[in-house]
Amino acid sequence: MILPVHDEWVLEVEDGAQQEVGERISQLMMAADGGELRDTSWLSVPLEVACGHGENWDEAH
């Protein structure tokens, strides 16, 4: 991780690994107890994770 910004993380990832890393990070961000996906039905708003990638912050959005 290079930088956490508010509710976003900036990561440096090897070329070609963006899809795999993005999927794993999404799973981990939504997980409890180290990997078991948590039941989020008790939340009053949906829990969403989105990943983007690019050469800079603007391209990633």
Topology:
Elements: E1 3-5, E2 8-10, H1 18-29, E3 31-32, E4 36-37, H2 57-60
Structure description:
The protein is of the alpha+beta class. The protein has one domain (3-60). The protein is 26% helix and 16% strand. The protein has helices spanning 18-29, 57-60, and strands at 3-5, 8-10, 31-32, 36-37. It has a two-stranded antiparallel sheet. The protein has a two-stranded antiparallel sheet with strand order 3-4. A hairpin with a 3-residue loop joins strand 3 and strand 4 (36-37). The protein is globular and about 35 Å long. The mean pLDDT is 78.
Helix content: 25-40%
What Rg is obtained from the alpha carbons, in whole angstroms?
13 Å
Kindly report how far apart the N and C termini lie. 17 Å
- Spatially, the strands of the biggest sheet line up as 1-2
Q: What structural category characterises the helix and strand content?
A: alpha+beta
> Secondary-structure element sequence?
EEHEEH
- What are the segments in which pLDDT stays under 50 over at least 5 consecutive residues? none
Described by the principal axes of the CA atoms, the overall outline is: globular
Number of strands: 4
- Main β-sheet description: 2 strands, antiparallel
Number of separate structural domains? 1
Oligomeric state: single chain
Mean pLDDT: 78
Number of helices: 2
Beta-strand percent range:
15-25%
